[in-house]
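@channel anyone free to eyeball this complex?
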Amino acid sequence: MAVMPATRIYEGTRIPSPCPTILEIDPDEHNLDDILRINFGPNHPSTHGVLRLVVDLDGEHIAGIRAVIGYLHTGFEKTMESKTYWKGITYPERIDYVAFQANELVFVMAIEKLLGLETPEKATWMRMCLSELNRIHSHLVWLGTSALELGAISMFWYAFRERDLVLDLFEMVTGVRMHGRYFQVGGLAEDVPEGFYAQAREFARYMPRAVDDYEGILDRNQIWLERTKGIGPLSAEDALALGQSGPMLRASGVDWDLRKNMPYLAYDEVDFDVPVYPNGDVYDRYKVHMDEMRASARIVGQCVTRLEEMRGAPWITDDRKVVLPPREELHTSMESLIHHFKIVTEGYLVPEGEVYVAVESARGECGCYLVSDGGPKPWRVKFRAPSFAALQATATCVRGTAVADLIAVAGSLDPVMGDADR
Amino acid sequence: MLPLVSDRPAAKAGLRSERILWPDRGPGVFEQELESVEDALMTTTVDKALAWAQSGSMWPDTFGLACCAIEMMSIVSSRYDIARFGMERFSSSPRQADLLIISGRMTHKMAAPARQVYDQMLEPKWVIAMGACASSGGMFNNYTVLQGVDKIFPVDIHVPGCPPRPEALMEGIVRLHEKIRAGVPPAYEIRGVAE
Amino acid sequence: MTPTGVPGVVETLEAHGETTLVVDPARMIEACTHLRDTEGFNVLVDIAGVDYLGWGDKEVAGYIGTPDGRDLNAAGSQGYRRVPEPKPKRFAVTYHLLRVSDSPERVRVKAWLDDGQEIDSVIGVWPAADWNEREAYDLFGIVFRGHPNLARILMPDEWEGHPLRKDYPLGGEPVRFSGEV
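replying in thread with the prediction:
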């Protein structure tokens, strides 16, 4: 893969200027009297959440666009500054509420990096397995809702049928369908339940057939092809200049996946393909999502095989300064009691420093910038949200398209407003 | 010997939840409250028919905000199937919607559009606050999250959970149907907004 | 591999396998252009503002030991209470850069600012800086000179104050019986 560093960004670019995220009406092309400004308001019929697009229309064509976000700004970062690290782990999941394990994982990995803590192998592989299941979950939700918006309404039911299978697996492991809070600093919260292996293997075997079903419905459908091929193109240089990552970048022809290029967890030990498509339009992004679902199913199968060999292995590190001791020890050991008390009341202390960790979430690069002052609560937590970056590309992608294509493009950017607004 | 539940007026109006689980148990708190409201109401046959029709095909408004929205979407899916209650037609236009399911955290910035949507709905209209964030602000007690949507409009049913399982949301919806059929008026007639 | 020859660099820090280049805010555009063109950092991943007001007011305990044992010579390793190293100024703007190529690398660029001090916008270097700088302005009040549309992005337009500053209260309602944590 060779991508030249974009040295001359604005030559031949489709990025609007002076402001890259606002498409201004070009007075040479459009008669200003014909312009109608409408609001695709925060209460959106499509289910991307509370995104507001202020669109200037010339007939059916988009003359100007501006995205307004912030309707779901929950103040995660400020709230997490007042919670200890252990309590704080419940928050990152709700940031990107569709690919929730990625945010949890990145926060936990950032804390572990500052602490210099090693996690046991079982925890690494289980984290990988759940992250890939979460990727499948996120792509299924994306597929169901995006197809619904473009008119392929029945895709919603097909996608959510498999989504329930993934959530059954999550429920078996973590106890809840979404937002499991299963990743802890040092490993996992609990051991992997015995029934998980068989059911996950069955799911990994079944999933590619389900993806074939979806492609059978959509791939050769003339309406789908006309609504997605050639719509909303984003070139590779523009994508890099706009800070894109994940499926957006891979659909524009850039072979970049953090799992392969900057591997974390145990991704360099599993075998999978990274789909790259050249055109950068909505159809290519759809193909990237479908191929990624297949690749994730393969990874899940490999993880389950490896996990089955590690039955009985420890699932969390035994550094008692950070991890709660097992309950049986509390009856006999004074040190364990003191450790338990200190960790629960004050919280474990993370050494002073700052660190940035990134993982490949379903939407792109999800990162956590953690600044610690040596105390039990973080000084500053900043989450790098892939949806925030993806929405910046809206103005570039919808240049020269019609209103109906706006929905296709907004869907293909895969924004989750919790992620964009934090 | 406790009185059989089926003798009581609330049961005759269709209240089933507690009765199915414990047929020989006395009236629960919900039923007792319902009874006290009911005695004041005296529903007629026409009212009963109207309530049956309203609860039989209540159209929700698409007001998905955050994580709870994903679980709200999953009740439309085939496993939890809200179409058996006639509610699969989520209406984006508030003018054609009866039920506003606030699913997710409501921020101050979003409160104004939300109130606008609520005002555009035609009466009778019901509101379900789905999830902990909509009911009370949830785990977010800070400068930007509204501590419960009942600060801006009156809420009929609060469904706890983070996010509530689809079955929990169904339970909330079914209780709402029972409330309507029992004759309880929508929240804007009996409650104001919270302080 | 640490980038060398970057104009405006005041200090280079290495920790946890990451490189931080502390740059003089007046020469930020020069430094960023050099990093983009010569070193090849073509993606701006994130811009984070940090407010260090109150840093060092509380004593913090040193970290007691590591998984491999206790390093008796490291500062703070005995667990004695100490004050963290003071920071030069109140605000820091941190740019995370990534080189998407066959030899991937990350680098962090940091600039220290006083309250009210402005910094040049790098929107001309990476268009991805647009919304990130708006967010830093909205939440911290850091003004980026030369930004074509420096407006609030996450908070409502008429909001007063910059929420993520340390002197801005967390807000919310008081909850009975719940302490601080």
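from a first look: Chain B is about 40% helix and 10% strand.
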